[in-house]
């Protein structure tokens, strides 16, 4: 096993970083990648990698790209999991008429297990790329787009600014001073 917290040559650093980016892009967690020793590739320790990350904009950008690619790979996995039924055994214990415990076994689709796998991958995608995969906000009124003409928009903005000014001035709705 090689020493992992040491100085890397430029060539060793490029090789290690390429391996890390490739693994992260294929859905592996960065911490798992950094813990492994991959054959002939000498990977840096966590502290060495994060020092490279802090010192080099290219490392930050490439890691961000690899994570986004990993999200795409995770979503492809989610689609595959959703489309592929998995049959498993469900074992339930029951008591018969005499009070003896009897195990009942049946084969069925492991729907709950697959749903958990799909949901986990989707939530990870939402965390890594919230703008692209996060929940969409409905900024309408009951599903209909709100359209204001210039007069209504001006009146609404004036009311908002008046409320802000009233709050800044320290008076409540009756014109009394706020008690802090």
Shape: flat
User: Based on the structure given, which CATH architecture of the largest domain is correct?
Assistant: Orthogonal Bundle
Number of domains: 2
CATH homologous superfamily heading of the largest domain: Homeodomain-like
CATH topology of the largest domain: Arc Repressor Mutant, subunit A
Number of contiguous helices: 7
Structural class: mainly alpha
Radius of gyration: 28 Å
Give the strand order, joined by hyphens, for the main sheet.
1-2
CATH top level class name of the largest domain? Mainly Alpha
Helix % is: 55-70%
Spans where pLDDT lies below 50 across 5 or more residues:
none
For this structure, the quaternary state is single chain
- Beta-strand content estimate: 5-15%
Describe the main β-sheet briefly: 2 strands, antiparallel
Mean of all residue-level pLDDT scores: 83
3D architecture notes:
The protein has 180 residues and is mainly alpha-helical. It folds into two domains: 1-85 and 112-136, Orthogonal Bundle (Arc Repressor Mutant, subunit A); 137-180, no CATH class. It is built from seven helices and two strands; from the N terminus they run H-H-H-H-E-E-H-H-H. Helix 1 runs parallel beside helix 4 and helix 4 (57-83) packs antiparallel against helix 5 (111-128). The N and C termini lie far apart (65 Å).
């Amino acid at each position: 096993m090689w020493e992992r917290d040491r100085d890397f040559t430029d060539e060793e650093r490029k090789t290690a970083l390429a391996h890390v980016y490739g693994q992260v892009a294929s859905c592996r967690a960065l911490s798992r990648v950094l813990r492994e020793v991959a054959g002939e590739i000498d990977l840096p320790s966590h502290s060495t990698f994060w020092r490279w990350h802090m010192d080099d904009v290219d490392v930050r950008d490439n890691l961000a790209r690899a994570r986004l690619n990993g999200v795409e790979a995770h979503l492809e996995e989610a689609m595959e999991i959703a489309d592929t039924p998995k049959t498993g055994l469900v074992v339930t214990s029951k008591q018969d008429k005499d009070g003896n415990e009897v195990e009942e076994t049946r084969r069925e689709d492991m729907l709950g297990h697959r749903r958990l796998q799909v949901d986990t991958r989707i939530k990870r995608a939402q965390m890594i790329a919230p703008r692209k995969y996060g929940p969409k906000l409905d900024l309408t009124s009951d599903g209909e787009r709100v359209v204001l003409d210039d007069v209504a928009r001006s009146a609404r903005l004036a009311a908002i600014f008046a409320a802000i000014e009233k709050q800044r001035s320290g008076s409540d709705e009756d014109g009394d001073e706020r008690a802090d």
